[in-house]
TrEMBL record:
Keyword Transcription regulation: no
Span of the signal peptide: none
A molecular-function term among this protein's GO annotations: hydrolase activity
Protein name, UniProt field: Fumarylacetoacetate hydrolase family protein
Organism: Pseudomonas yamanorum
UniProt keyword annotations, A-Z: Hydrolase, Metal-binding
Gene Ontology biological process terms in this record: small molecule metabolic process
Superkingdom as given in the UniProt entry: Bacteria
InterPro entries on file: FAH, Fumarylacetoacetase-like_C, Fumarylacetoacetase_C_sf
Domain annotation Fumarylacetoacetase-like C-terminal: ranges: 89-312
Length: 313
């Protein structure tokens, strides 16, 4: 039986874990197997063991839902918390969709390699600040200061479930706990520092570009990898104020999730709670020089994972 996980705020604003089964939300902390203050962070630390118990629980709930009425959460009052309270490193893949590379090359008159993998070019990643960047489903995101080119990027987020050090591509997906929806918000005008000479390697500011409070909404649900047949064939869409702006499929990845996990793990060990943002498809604002305005509402939907919604204020 499929289940999905989330963190939510209790009435005392403490963060607690929940489980979604058959479209009904339940409070995991109310089950005897859980102790106080357990969140998804701890569950991921022991993912191989935890997912077996969670699968058994989901089967029991599905078979006898009336026996679990006392554990139900009221959907109208459910307030989601960030999926992790203490996220590890957030890695972001750059230029990893064929359609996005084509669109950016045309819009910006850039000579971008359409198939870098076939030419032996390795994947490329940046790092986002973790705790300050991560935001929850339904959370209002404050418009960052001193930017007029704030952009959206719908992405598939990958959550690591066990330590991965120098893993092979054919075993890389074994280290994935699950998947979620993400919006990699980007301050495009902070990428380059105009007061620094164009020839200087210090002209680029990836922290200013990619990291600010709330720059990484993720959620609302963590879908275990066991329930996704292939992460390389998922429809992905983004709406801005109800208008469809991104509409693609993860089959357009230039580098697969397995490629990315394997490559990153050759350089640095991955740990439970690390997150990989796997790239965005065509349709970002930069392609048309159309950027986020205060009051904009974004919805990111990925097949089988759910819908992430946030307002920029």
């Amino acid at each position: 039986m499929k289940f999905q996980l989330f963190n939510y705020f209790r009435n005392d604003d403490a963060i607690a874990p929940g489980i979604l089964v058959c479209d009904v939300s339940y409070d995991l902390q109310s089950f005897r197997a859980f102790t106080a203050n357990v969140t998804l962070d701890e569950i991921l630390e022991y993912w191989d063991e935890a997912k077996l118990w969670l699968a058994e629980l989901a089967n029991d709930i599905s078979a006898s839902p009336q026996g679990y009425d006392a554990h139900q959460l009221e959907p109208r009052s459910l307030r989601y918390a960030p999926l992790l309270s203490r996220p590890g490193t957030i890695y972001g893949a750059g230029a990893n969709y064929r359609d996005h590379v084509d669109a950016m090359a045309k819009a910006l008159n850039m000579n971008l390699c359409a198939d870098p993998k076939s030419e032996g070019i390795p994947p490329w990643h940046f790092i986002k600040a973790s705790r300050s960047s991560l935001a929850a489903h339904g959370q209002d995101i404050n418009f960052p200061a001193d930017t007029s080119m704030l952009d959206w990027e719908a992405e598939l987020a990958v959550f690591i479930g066990k330590r991965a050090d120098k893993v092979r591509g054919d075993e890389a997906l074994l280290y994935v706990a699950g998947y979620s929806c993400a919006n990699d918000l980007s301050a495009r005008d902070h990428l380059k520092r105009p007061q620094v000479d164009e020839s200087s390697p210090f002209r680029f500011d990836w922290i200013g570009h990619k990291s600010f409070n709330g720059s990484c909404p993720v959620g609302p649900l963590l879908t275990p990898a066991d329930f996704i047949n292939s992460p390389e064939s998922l429809a992905i869409k983004l709406w801005r104020n109800g208008e469809l702006r991104q509409d693609s499929n993860t089959s357009n990845h230039l580098y697969t999730i397995a490629d990315q996990i394997s490559y990153i793990s050759q350089r640095v060990e991955l740990f439970p709670g690390d997150i990989i943002l796997t790239g965005t498809p065509a349709g970002v604002g930069m392609e048309t020089q159309t950027f986020i305005q205060r009051g904009d509402i974004f919805r990111v939907w990925i097949e089988g994972l759910g819908t992430l919604e946030n307002k920029i204020i």
